[in-house]
Every structure is written in structure tokens, then in C-alpha cells.
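ok posting inputs for the zinc ion job
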Amino acid sequence: MKKYAITDIKALEIIDNRGMPTVRVNVNVDHKYWGRADVPCGSSTGSHEAREIRDGNARFRGKGVQKAIENIHEILLPKLRGMDATRQQEIDYLMLELDGTGNKSRLGANAILGVSLAVAVAAAAAGRLPLYKYLNADARILPVPQASLVNGGLHAGNDLDIQEFCVMPIGAETFGESVRILCEIFYHLKDLLLEKLGKSATNSSEDGGFAPPISSTRQAMDLLLEAVHRASYSDKVVYGLDFAATGFYNPEEDHYNFEGSQKTRDELIGFIKQLLGDYPSIVSIEDPLHENDLEGMKILTQEFGDHLVIGDDMFATNIKRIQKGLKLGAANATLCKVNQIGTLTEALETVNFARHKNYTVVMSERSGETEDSILSDISVAFNAGLFKTGGIRGSDRGTNYNRFIEIETELGSSAVYAGENYR
Ligand code: PGA
Ligand code: ZN
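and the output
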């Protein structure tokens, strides 16, 4: 038997931070080492993402993942058993072939990704290495967290249209310090929201930020800036907004329902121009237009090339989508969400391709996460300068912050916090 042979795979249906079922996979290597991984899931998912499989029956209102799990046990395990777990690319490509659809809709992106990730974790365990080191022996960059402390859109029960108002502590010296800065801003923001808007304004959003009962982008920015000022970190942080604009776009009538009125693309672009002019510390805009408006993204990229103009739903961590963007000059950065593409190998290929074409890569969590901290290891292995996360509360978020702190400590003096060099 091969030294790192896959000897078993056990998958199960667990729940994520939103009470949604998801897939957990345990891969066994050499009858000895187990590797475990959970599959993340978005709320504001784009149409170009790899397809996860949901059961569609009465259980969990159709959201169960028993079929995906059956596919792991009955289709993937028999083919993968005996394969060398260190041959990640070979394993991932075999799964693509077995699926055969191009978007993973037969076996399910949730089935395939769970196995892909757990194989890497098991191989790392068998090699007695932490995952980030197993994936990249030279890994040492700790990313700037892009933490969404105020939420709207599909992530919050309020009327803010923009999904995420993120704080990026680029002036911290270490990742650990960046977390402390975020926490202190978070405490001040909580006090401020209580003071100005009352108790209900301190309620949590879906991914651990605040969901205050406001509807104005500028009011959200002003609250955030005030909290940062009170925490005395105005000189250490910059800001990023995830518009997730597909969420407020009406495709039938081709307009955006934004801040109480219907806006054309040009009107929304006009709003963004004014906003960025008035708030010069906003350095990053993500999905400012709907996922198929590459033309509009080109206009914004030309105008704001010194900002990060990030494609998330627009690119879906997919090389083919990024190629389309490149042709037009749309965006200058891409998010990398492993479940948008569905295997570790393809996620790395996308990252390499994007960097080769001078796109900045931002690793990212989904709104639906578990206690699994695998994305931190992957981020460090991929040398990402930015890591987009939810807020600062909830162990679904804490697990990644804490894992980065652990990795930074483990790397000691060789650790490099991306800081001002996040691009
Ligand atoms: P999602 O949101 O995980 O709900 O898709 C995150 C994002 O849009 O960046
Ligand atoms: Zn996004």
C-alpha cells in the first residue's frame, strides 16, 4: 500500500452558524491519520458559482445535504480509496472528471470541496505538518483582516443596501494587534450604536457584525468613523465596502433599488464617485455593480484604479470569468472563496492566474461558516495579503482570527503581517 494511501472517507451532515445543514468530511490516510473539513456556504451567492447539491425534500425545508453525502460515500470513496493523499491535483481532477458537468452539479460542489479540503488536511496530518506549511513550505504572510463590522443587504434584517462595511487595520504591526484594534473598535461601535440608536441597534448580523436599523450608506460610514475615532485608531485603519450589488439589482427592469429610489447604472456610479470623494479612507469596493456588468466595472476601474475594485460574484473564483474581466479591464482584484469554485487545486490555480495578471487576491470566508479554521491555513499558504471576514463576534468568525494568531505565534520572527503592503 502507498505510504499516504486514502483508506476511508466518512462524511456527515452538520449545521453551520445559520442553522443550515452543510457537509463535514473526514478523510483517513494509512488507517492512522484523520483530516477533517467543513464546507462553507454563502447567503448572497452568485449565479456563476459551482453548484452545491441540496436535497429539496421536507427535511430542513429542502436544505439537507444527504444526497451530497451519499455521493461521497458511494461514488467518490470507491474511486479515491488507495490513492496517494499527497497527490492533491490528481485527486481533484479525478473528482472533476467523475462529476463531468463543468459546474459540479452532478456530484455537488459541496461533496467535492469537502473531500478536496479534507484530503489536504489528512495528508498534512500524515506528514506531521500544520496545513499551511504542508501546502507551502515558505508560507509566512499574515493577511490584513477586512472585517465587516456593519452589515446590510442579505446579511442583516435592516434596510441598509450595502452588505458589508469593513474595517482594515493596515497600520497594525502584527496580525494579533490587528485583532485587538478590531475588537476595541467593535466595543466603541457597540456603545455608540446604543447611545445614538438604542438597544436594538447592537443586534448581530448574520456574520457577526452589527445590523443597526438605518438605511443610509453615509450614516453607516459616519458611525463607523466615529467609533474608530473614539478608539483612537483613525490613523491605523482604512475601509472596504462590499456592495454585493446583485442583491439590490432588478434584472427585469435593469435598475438598482438603492436608498429608496430606482437607480440606473450611471446613477449608481455617480453615487459611488461622490461617496469615494467624500470618504477618502475607503480604499476598496467589492461588487459595486451586479455580477454581469463587466462594462460598468470597467468604467469604475478606470476611474478608481488606485482603489481595489474587487470582483466577487462577478468572478466566482473562476479563471474563465476573470479572463472575461481582463479582456475588458474590469476590476483589479478578485475574491477567492474556495466553495465558489469547489476544489483546492482550482482555487490555487485561480489565485496564481489572477496574480500573474496583476489582480490583487483577497481570500474570503462565506456568511455560512462553522468552527472549522481551515481558511486561515489556506490564506497563509496562498500568501494572501487580505482576508475578508465577517464581524468580530461568534466562534464561526473567532476560529479564523484565532487560527491566524496561532500561526503567527508559531512562525515567530519569520511571520510577516501584510499591513500597508496588503495589495
Ligand atoms: P456570502 O457573502 O458569503 O453570503 O456570499 C460574502 C460576500 O458577498 O462577500
Ligand atoms: Zn461579496
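notes: DSSP finds 13 helices and 16 strands in the chain. The chain has a mean pLDDT of 97.
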